[in-house]
Structure formats: C-alpha cells, structure tokens
Amino acid sequence: MTKHNIIAIGASAGGVETLSNLVSQLPSDLDAAIFVAIHFPPRATSVLPQILNRLKTLPAQHPAEGDAIAPGQIYIAPPDHHLFVRQGHIHLDHGARENGHRPAIDTLFRSIAYAYGRQAIGVILTGTLDDGTAGLLTIKARGGIAIVQDPNEALFAGMPLSAINAVEVDEILRVRDIAKRLIELSLTPIHEQKPMTDEISHEGEWVAQEKAAIEQGERTGLASTFTCPDCGGVLWELHDQNLMRYRCHVGHAYSIDSLLSEKDNSLERALWTAHRALEEKAALARRMAAQAKRSNYSMSEAQFLERAAEAENHAAVLKQVLSQQIELQPHPEEID
C-alpha cells in the first residue's frame, strides 16, 4: 500500500546543524527516501554526507545521475547541481539558478511534487529569504504534506516564516517533533492515490512548459520592467495562488525577496566598479600633473591636479554611499 515515503527537506543558513539534529532522531529502518537541498557555494566541497553518516542512522550520499531511488536512504543535492526526482530515479542538472542558488530548494520540491503527488512530504528548515516557499506550495497543491520548522526554534527564521505566510502548511513543529511526525507519516497508508502522469524531470522541461503556457494565455504572466540579475533578460511576472515570482526565458527564477537581494548585490558591485574607476582617474590625473611639472607646464599641472581632486572627492562621496548601502542590506547567510 502506498505511504508518505518521499520526503524533501530544504534548508539554508544554519541548515547543517539543524539537519543533523533531525536525522539523528530518525530510525535506521525508516521506510522512506529522503532528499535534501541545502545552499552550498558553487565551488564548495561538501562533506555533508560524511557528517550525517557519522550519526549512524540513515546512510547519506551525493547521488549520481540516473541513480535508482531506494527507501532508507538520504540523497543530498551536490554543490552547483539541481537535484530532480522522477518516478524511481534521480537526475542532476546544471541548469539556471533559482533564487540565486544551485542547488535550489524550489526545484527539488517541485520535481518531487510532480513525480509523487500525495506521497510527498515537504519540510522547510532554517534559512534566510524564501527559497522553498514556491516548491512547498506545489507539493501542497499536488496533495502532499507541508511541514515547517517552528520559526521560534529556527536559527534563521526567514525561510520558515515565508513558507508559513504563503502556504497553508499542515504542521509547524520543532525539530524533535518533525522527526516523530515523519516516522508516523511514513507508516500511514494513502487512500485514493491519483496517478502522476505529468512528471517533470529537468529544469528545461519546466521552463519550456511555463513559457508555452504564458504564450498561450494559460498562465498569468506579464513582462515586467525588471531584468534578470544573472543574464540581463526580461523577467516575467508569474502569479501562483497568492505567491508572485519572476522568471526569465533562460530559466533563472526569483521570488520577490530573492530578486531584491540580488538587485542589492548588483547595485553594490556597480558602485564598487564606479569607485575604482574614480580612484584610477585621480591617480592618472596626478601622474599627468607630475609629468607636466617636469616639463614646466604649470597651467597643465594645475588643471590635472584639479581633475585629480575632483575625482577623489567624487570617490569619497561614493564610498559614503557604499557604506550606507552595506549597512541597509541584510546580513549574508552563514554557510555551515
């Protein structure tokens, strides 16, 4: 009999510690497959499987493309790869980032929702911003179960709060109670299971379907005035129930919070570039002034010194703006 035996877990800042706590409370004979997406830097070397394997509960691994899914296993998305699931198998994808991340929680959750429907359980743990909210909404819409860590317990409450505000979640629990609930659900039969016939295994398929639906008027999608921080393309504004998202034609996707965060980063990079150009301009003008002095061109020397002072003043003002910009930004996520 079919049970709730496909568990998707998403976490970000503080996620390694929280996930370890959760896994330590699961039995070694849990009759479910667990899939994990945690934000890693693109070129990071992940030792998360080794950390979880030291707990001696469920074996953990970074899967390979095409691996068969087995119960009692933990499959962790490797750095710089999306993890997709379809009936019975795992797929890895180096496609467009979502919410600035690869792996992204939304891509994992969405693929599991389409492949397994009511068998799926989505769990959002600690993290900043809101990756995972849209994916959890899809799990819920496809008949799955949505569980969120209690924000009061989470090391970073942003992701749990975002999910609670946007999704009609089934449970808001502390980690120890999440573990108990997952055990209970893995033993609970599912009645009237509907077959899942519209699996989506790769990001390209999802992007193509969304684009086709927008072009045919089947989805509410309008070209926004915003450009994609990754590729510079036009971002389409998409509405999914009460959740608004943005996606470009290449497939980069953003929630509102993630887009704002990326725009902050883009603005800071642009300001630093301008600051560097002004300092270089001042240095070059002073060099030209020195050359004019050696050649006894006093008027040229004065002009170059004036231009150098002007550039330095502008650079100082820009440095002030940069300091204020950095103070206004939220603190970056801490990677365990």
Number of helical segments with 4 or more residues: 9
Order of helices and strands: EHEHEEEEHEHEHEHHEEEEHH
Strand content: 15-25%
Overall shape: it is elongated
**Annotated CATH topology of the largest domain:** Rossmann fold
Ends distance:
39 Å
CATH superfamily of the largest domain: Methylesterase CheB, C-terminal domain
Text of the CATH class of the largest domain: Alpha Beta
Low-pLDDT stretches: 199-204, 331-336
Mean pLDDT: 85
In the CATH hierarchy, the architecture of the largest domain is 3-Layer(aba) Sandwich
Helicity, as a percent range:
40-55%
> How many DSSP-defined strands?
13
Strand order of the largest sheet: 3-4-2-1-7-8-9
| Main sheet record | 7 strands, parallel
Number of domains: 3
The secondary structure category is alpha/beta
**Compute the gyration radius: what is it?**
25 Å
Organism: Leptolyngbya boryana NIES-2135
Catalytic activity: [protein]-L-glutamate 5-O-methyl ester + H2O = L-glutamyl-[protein] + methanol + H(+)
Keywords: Chemotaxis, Hydrolase
InterPro entries: CheB_C, Chemotax_prot-Glu_Me-esterase, Sig_transdc_resp-reg_Me-estase
